[in-house]
Write a structure and sequence with these properties.
The protein has a single domain, classed as Four Helix Bundle (Hemerythrin (Met), subunit A), CATH 1.20.120. The termini are far apart. Helix content is 84%, strand content 0%. It contains 4 helices and no strands. By secondary structure, the protein is an all-alpha fold.
Length: 107
């Protein structure tokens, strides 16, 4: 039987393996949202950034958590402002997604 420590480490490894794909999916959703202005990608991005904000720190990625928090707030602002991102918001989101990818991509 595995110890609690072993199980936690297994969860951390699984999270670490899946994290780059989750962020790339966030990037794809962003591009779909910008190109089509569909509300579904925005809702999915809000859920994804919310989840990353909470899980990043738990699994040893505090920068993922803080960057995701900033992304989430910017996406909320876009939603409350009618769903059309300003050029500054677009730039910020694209920069932060790039930061997330750099943070989780093995060097």
């Amino acid at each position: 039987m595995k110890s609690v420590t072993d199980r936690v480490e297994q969860l951390r490894r699984t999270y670490s393996r899946q994290l780059p794909d989750r962020i790339r999916e966030l990037e794809r959703m962003w591009h779909r949202f910008v190109e089509r202005r569909e509300p579904l990608p925005l809702a999915a991005m809000l859920e994804s950034t919310h989840n990353l904000t909470g899980s990043g720190g738990v699994y040893g990625y505090p920068r993922v958590s803080s960057i995701s928090r900033e992304l989430h707030q910017t996406l909320l602002n876009i939603k409350h402002e009618g769903g059309a991102p300003s050029s500054d918001q677009r730039l910020l989101i694209e920069e932060r997604i790039g930061e997330l990818l750099r943070e989780v991509t093995p060097r």
